[in-house]
Design a protein that fits this description.
This protein is an alpha+beta fold and about 90 residues long. The chain has 3 helices and 2 strands, in the order H-E-E-H-H. The longest helix is centred in the N-terminal third of the chain and has 21 residues. The radius of gyration is 14 Å and the shape is elongated. The model has no long low-confidence stretch (mean pLDDT about 90).
Length: about 90
Amino acid sequence: MELILIALGGCTGSDVAIILEKKRVRFSKFEMKITGERAAAEPKVYTTIHIDYCVEGVNLREKDIAHAIELSMTKYCSSAQCSRNPWP
């Protein structure tokens, strides 16, 4: 199950970094902390997943970072889409 969180982190993390670079947002540090809570009963799927993004740099605008995260989670990160609704 931890691999699901790792896949999600890798997918959205690379998306956000690429989007920020394309927007010419220069950052010196980019970290993520991903946690998830699982159901008590089998199958113990994740009921919530929380991602904290930490971006450091000079002259960063929160708007640019928030937009990059939104694009990743709603459009580009296929792992995020699978975690929302894995079975139609």
